[in-house]
Amino acid sequence: MAVAGLATAGQLLVVCLEHSCSYSKARSNSEHKPPSRGFSSLGALRFCNDERRGRRRGSSRASGIRADARRDSEQHMRDQQHEIRVCINKTCRKSGSLETLDVIRSLAPPNVTVESCSCIGKCGNGPNLVILPAEMMVSHCNTAAHAARLLALQCGASDPENNLKALDLKQQANKAFERGSLLEAEQLYTQAIELNPSGGLHFIYANRSALKLAQGNFQGALQDAQEAERIAPKWAQAFVRQADALSGMGEVESALNALSTALRLDPLLRRSKGFQAKTRDLQSKLATASAST
User: Fold this and answer.
1) What pairing do the DSSP bridges indicate for beta strands 136-138 and 129-132?
2) Where are the annotated TPR repeats, by residue (predicted)?
């Protein structure tokens, strides 16, 4: 019985060893077995990653399409002529419409004309304004940020935050110019120009032109005035600035031609006493030069 028991135990041991070996062999075979063509976890991971990449590519394409559409819309608005009329009637004036008028004029791109007007209704909700030709009425436009966003949405003056930064620098430069700090003013105007705002850039060039004229830098003043003309070719003040610079350079006839162009673009300049004085002065200089020759 003991031998039999030992044999039985030995057989059991052999069976256990064989089972262990067969398990190890099976495990070894399974580890070296080539991956199944089925939907393995690794395949699922690759599939999910590919799907995510596809979604990202699709999302990128969609974002690109939206960006292109937005740029096309902004370009279309910039190609159109817009007019903004700001009410300066008594009630709106109390709400700050004169400041709104000044800010919108300063931020407006060349394709936007900004004028004051009388009451347009909705008194008490001012400052009120209307955008043409869309015939859109806007109320409570009482901050520079609101004005900048409005110009961006309706007139194509993109990047309103950048435009506001340039406006702030221009206003600082104007104050420095007024107190006689010409070098500081020039630096501030230049910083504003380097921001390349989508609205009001021609005003900044014109202001720097006036500054350079005060410095006696007539050539620099002329270049800035010509740059203002390039940005806003229908803006009369750009030609007035050119006339000032040309007059300082002694080119009287060219200066008179520039004033003539300005008057053609804006006939209301005829009423300006300053414009009349400049014209008379240049005509007198031209007559004197002609008489001396």
Assistant:
1) antiparallel
2) 236-269
Lookup: tokens for 57? 């590519």
Q: What is the dihedral of CA 268, 273, 275, 281, to 10 degrees?
A: 150
CA distance 34 to 27: 13
Domains of the chain: 80-155 (3.40.30.10), 160-285 (1.25.40.10)
DSSP, collapsed to helix, strand or coil, labels residue 158 as: coil
**SS3 track for 46-103:** HHHHHHHHHHHHHHHHHHHHHHHHHHHHHHHHHHCCEEEEEECCHHHHHCCHHHHHHH
Write out pLDDT tens, residues 166-223: 999 999 999 999 999 999 999 999 999 999 999 999 999 999 999 999 999 999 999 9
pLDDT at 24: 40
Tell me the percentage of the chain whose pLDDT exceeds 90: 64
Distance of alpha carbon 1 from alpha carbon 266, whole angstroms: 129
Handedness of CA 170, 173, 178, 183 (dihedral sign): negative
Adjacency order of strands within the sheet including 136-138: 112-117, 82-87, 129-132, 136-138
- What does DSSP assign to residue 116? E
Residue 54's pLDDT is what?
57
